[in-house]
Amino acid sequence: MFLDYFALGVLVFVAVFLFYGVIAIHDIPYEISKKRNHPHQDAIHYAGWVSLFTLHAIWPFLWIWATLWREDRGWGFTKIQNEQHELHHEVLQLTEQVERLTEKVAQLEVTQARQSATSHRNDKVNQKEED
């Protein structure tokens, strides 16, 4: 008779332990988001409770969602944005440089055309004088 009650006690203890264990495990993404001061803490917490009903099918995605945010760098895209801004600035500088060089080439072509026209006229004048 004692063993029956002992077995029942062990069974209840294991059931309660598993129940609280599952709840503690499902709350890990929320705790991570709380520690990191995540802007979507509440959504992660509610989604964690929903994951209990989906047998934790969405739990790995909650983990990823919670770990993507860090308070010091946000979502991590600032470095990419800074690099893109620098590249855009460099492209603008190169575009301006190409425009200046195009203008210089056009000026040089005009100057060369004038010089060749002048030398062509001088050649004709010299030929007439020689004749």
UniProtKB/TrEMBL annotation:
The alphabetized UniProt keywords are: Coiled coil, Membrane, Transmembrane, Transmembrane helix
> Cross-referenced InterPro entries, in alphabetical order?
UCP028770
Q: Which Pfam families match?
A: DUF3302 (PF11742)
* Keyword Transmembrane helix in annotation: yes
Indicate, by first and last residue, each region the UniProt record lists as having compositional bias (Basic and acidic residues): 120-131
Q: Where is this region: Disordered?
A: 112-131
Where does the record place a coiled coil? 84-111
Q: Which domain of life is it from?
A: Bacteria
The keyword Transmembrane helix belongs to this UniProt entry's keyword annotation: yes
Residues passing through the membrane, by range: 6-25, 46-66
Q: Any idea what this protein is called? A: DUF3302 domain-containing protein
